[in-house]
Structure formats: C-alpha cells, structure tokens
Design a protein that fits this description.
Elements (H helix, E strand, L loop, with lengths): L2 E2 L12 H13 L10 E4 L4 H12 L9 E7 L8 E3 L4 E2 L6 E3 L1 H8 L4 E3 L14 H8 L4 E7 L4 H11 L5 E6 L4 E3 L1 H16 L14 H13 L3 E9 L10 E10 L1
Parallel strand pairs: 1-5, 2-9, 3-8, 3-9, 4-7, 6-8
Antiparallel strand pairs: 2-12, 4-8, 5-6, 10-12, 11-12
Helix pairs in contact: 5-7
Length: 260
C-alpha cells in the first residue's frame, strides 16, 4: 500500500497519538452542533494552537453523521498549480492511523477536465493534512477521503468537480482555507467581515485573492452554493490574535456550514 507520510505532524498538531486525540476531542467537546446535516464545511488549516477552536466549530457538525466519503479541497501553498491535483497514493498517514483514499472518487475526479493525478503538490502540503485528525475523531477510521489541491481554476470548474463528487447522502465536502494574512487585527477583522459577507451572500465574484489563501476552492464552493441554492451559516470567526499571537500580524480563520 502506497502511503503519503505525514508532513507537519509535530508542528501543526501533536505527533503523539494520545495527545493528538485528546486535543481534538477536547476542542470538539466545547462545540454545540447546530443540528443541521452539512453538505459542505469550510475550516481553517493553521496550527491547532491558533485555529483549533475554529476548525472544531466546523467538524463538530459531523459528530454522529452517517458520512462515508469526504472530499477535502484546499490550496497548493508550495507548488505552482493550474487546475486540480489528486494524489495517486492509497492512504495518508497520521499519528492516529492511516486515512484511506477513496479510489472510486479519484477515478471520477481524474476523468474531469483540468484534474490531474499528481503527488508532487501533496508531498509537503499542510492544508489537507491538518483536516484529517478531525475527520478521524468525528467519523472514525473507516472514513474514505479524496484530497484535492486546487490551483488557478475557474469557479465553475470547481463547482462542477463538487457536483460530480457530491453524489450520495453519505458524502460531504470540506474546503480548507484560512482568511486574511498578516494584517493588523483591526484591518484583518474588517477584511474578514467583508469575506464573510460574500460567502453568506453566495457571491463568488465578491471574493478577492487576498481574502483567503484558499481563494480558488472557496470561490468554487461559493459558486456551488449559489447554483444549488444552499443555505450558508457562519459557525465561528476569529484571528490568530485571539489565541495569543501578535495582534500586529494576524491570520484570520472562519468556519462555515452549507446545507440544502
């Protein structure tokens, strides 16, 4: 079995399985789920010490849900990418055990225009890896995941990919993105409020590249929400300064739920 090693274990989240499970469970336990079954979620991907409470606000919505496949979309931070890339490996390693990839979903995605099977952008990428411990603790070790890195891509193409993959009652999508980067706290809150307004208004044209590092996958999800008339709910909004980071240079985090 080909396995992609964990790239940011011990940096973005604890490397010890007991410590990691306890941290994720504690974060999830602090959230009261809305009771709405999500079709899609938006969650951040920074170190858990900074964004863990916001990520938990999204993933707690999956607790007890009958979900067998999760399509996780995020940005490629380190490898220039046009279109989308899915990995060829059979699983992603985590300290909590391997997360198996959904081979059927990969075949379906790879048949679409602009989607390539390419492990290189995934090798050191944290945007998708940081989502996996939350998925394991909410959905269990049997969950199947399709990781998709989204580069420069038209929002209609991303929405089309999601439409092709969200084909059953047990499938959920997650878009992994942080919001504004390295502004002072006041300016970050102002920009993130504008981004929230665009997402809640399902207006992908109002989003700008500086609004989110996951601009391309987020814009595609917002286009899908408009096309399918999905309800969008803000679950939590914060910055790294709320977790004790420098208020002069913060990163914004938002969690959203999308439902039919």
């Amino acid at each position: 079995m080909a396995v992609r090693p964990a790239a940011v274990s011990g940096r973005f989240y604890p490397s010890g399985p007991v410590e990691l499970a306890a941290l994720v469970d504690r974060l999830l336990a602090a959230v009261r789920p809305s009771g709405r079954r999500p079709l899609a979620l938006v969650a951040p991907h920074a170190g858990y010490r900074y964004c863990g409470t916001v990520a938990a606000a999204a993933y707690a919505q999956l607790t007890g849900a009958d979900v067998g496949r999760v399509v996780v979309l995020g940005p490629a931070h380190f490898v220039p990418l046009t279109g989308c890339a899915v990995p060829s490996v059979d699983a992603f390693a985590t300290p909590l055990g391997p997360v198996r990839l959904d081979a059927a979903a990969r075949r379906l995605a790879a048949a679409l225009p602009g989607v390539a099977v390419d492990d290189r952008p995934h090798a050191g990428e944290h945007a998708l890896e940081t989502q996996l411990p939350f998925l394991l603790r909410t959905l269990g070790p049997e969950v199947r995941v399709l990781p998709v890195l989204v580069g420069r891509t038209d929002p209609a193409a991303v929405a089309g990919l999601l439409c092709a993959l969200l084909t059953g009652p047990d499938v959920v999508a997650v878009v992994s993105t942080d919001l504004s980067h390295y502004l002072d706290r006041a300016r970050a809150q102002e920009r993130d409020a504008r981004t929230v307004s665009a997402v809640l208004g399902r207006d992908d044209a109002a989003l700008r590249p500086g609004d989110a590092c996951g601009y391309y996958p987020l814009r595609g999800l917002v286009r899908l929400a408009a096309d399918r008339d999905l309800a969008v709910e803000l679950l939590h909004l914060a910055t790294s300064a709320d977790a004790g980071a420098d208020p002069g240079r913060v990163v914004g985090y938002g969690a959203f739920l999308l439902a039919g």
